[in-house]
Design goal:
By secondary structure, the chain is mostly helical. Helix content is 87%, strand content 0%.
Length: 83
Amino acid sequence: MTIGKKMHQTLNNLRSVHADLKSYALETDDQQAKQMFTQYADQVEQIKNGMEGRVNYIEQQEPQYQVYNQAMQKQQQQQQQQQ
């Protein structure tokens, strides 16, 4: 797996964790737990934002790491071949 794919996978994991923590905060009636989950969600969001910035920077500097664009191009090529 390339570094670009690993970084995008990490970003997706961070997004998932962030969403889970926000969900836990909304679902609990315990105010202390709610505050804790909200704080954790905020911390994960900061990490996620930093990681997104790094991925964007790397993709600008190193086009071969543009995983999303490459995946979309590959998918379009496969669809064209099937038609």
